[in-house]
Amino acid sequence: MAWRSLFFFAFVLHVAVIATSCKAISCSRPRTQASLFIFGDSILDAGNNNYINTTVAQRANFWPYGQTHFNFPTGRFCDGRLIGDFVAQYANLPLIPPFLQPGAEYYDGANFASGGAGALDETFQQDQVISLRTQLSNYMKVKDWLTRKLGSDGANSVLSNAVHLFSIGANDYFTFATANSAAPESQSRFFVGMVLGNFTRVIEEIYKIGGRKFAFINLPPVGCHPMARTFESDNSDSCFEKLSLLTRMHNQAMPQLLVQLRKKLQGFKYSLFDMNSEIHKRMENPAKYGLKHGKTACCGGGKYGEVYNCGGMGEEKEFNICENPHEYMFWDAAHLTEISYKQFAEQMWSGHDPLVVVGPYNLEKLFQLDVIESPLTTFVSSFQCQKQNKNSRPYVLLINVNE
């Protein structure tokens, strides 16, 4: 058992080094630089699930996760860095710390994302992941922390000029589709409205607290991920159509939803990245993007890496791992490689193609944008979301989607 103790000590030491370096950078960086707050699921989770009592399927703090960049598992569901890490780099920020990381400071922002999380509290509730509403509560705690450190005006300035990055919803639709594969379209449409309604409510609450700048990643084609293909039929090249329909309805509704929010919320600025289309392009023509494999996972069981057991998680302990993750779009059965996330982050940062970055801003411009209005004029001191009934029914957004 001695090697286990050494492994744990090395992990703690590695995290401590990251935390110390981030702390040093944030203390020396001018406070005028826009911060980054990250919300969502495993696409953006930088290690929050390391600190909660969840299942092994909702963790990534074991080898070979993290092998490409960090040379150690950090809790990221990837072989290396995520989109949020690259965005922080391009914005001249340090790595944004997980909110739950002991000793973390939040001048540069915080990462609230949790693998397995959904817009609905019920999504993977049995795994005790951090739902989007709980992430909102943690954001409010960071606001209180900033107020203690910088004063009320300083905290308001940080939040109003910060970029708030979101990727959420895939887990909601995955759990619904696997449990209700025969649900009629009307029920599916109602469920999409529930997810978008809860998502919208969180955005509006962040706006009330002081947030003005938002960046959104639309849902990936999770119905065509290696793991999801096993649900449709014995044809391993077929997508899970029920799940694909739900994500398609969600993504079609997002642009019009954001336009409505821009009209409703004064000073609301946003960028929307179409990751779904970009993943499809790489699945069909990986060579065009410097990849060799667009549909097979680098790490996992089965012929195509469709078994979600990278690192030996789950009942099936034997798994395969590729020699070069940079040749693959998929890292495991449900997540992408660092090279894929890097390509997407570059598009989000400086992209000008209206079919990829839906405006009016890419992230570079969004970070540079100064909020004109004083955050004190619109700051809400009494947070209504603190008063919400925990058992209240989800808010439903009525949507009109043409397939």
Sequence-ordered SSE layout with sheet pairings:
Elements: H1 2-28, E1 36-40, H2 83-90, E2 109-111, H3 132-161, E3 163-167, H4 170-179, H5 185-209, E4 213-217, H6 241-264, E5 269-273, H7 275-284, E6 293-297, E7 299-300, E8 320-321, E9 328-330, H8 338-350, E10 357-358, H9 363-368, H10 375-378
Parallel strand pairs: 1-2, 1-3, 3-4, 4-5, 6-9
Antiparallel strand pairs: 5-10, 7-8
Key terms:
10 strands, globular, two-stranded parallel ribbon, Rossmann fold, 403 residues, six-stranded mixed sheet
Describe the structure.
The radius of gyration is 20 Å and the shape is globular. It has 403 residues and is an alpha/beta fold. It has helices at residues 2-28, 83-90, 132-161, 170-179, 185-209, 241-264, 275-284, 338-350, 363-368, 375-378; strands at residues 36-40, 109-111, 163-167, 213-217, 269-273, 293-297, 299-300, 320-321, 328-330, 357-358. The model is unreliable at 1-32 and 372-395 (pLDDT under 50). It has a six-stranded mixed sheet with strand order 2-1-3-4-5-10. A two-stranded parallel ribbon has the order 6-9. Helix content is 39%, strand content 9%. The longest helix is centred in the middle third of the chain and has 30 residues, at 132-161. It contains ten helices and ten strands. The protein has one domain: SGNH hydrolase (Rossmann fold), CATH 3.40.50. Helix 2 crosses helix 8 (338-350), helix 3 (132-161) packs across helix 5 and helix 5 runs parallel beside helix 6.
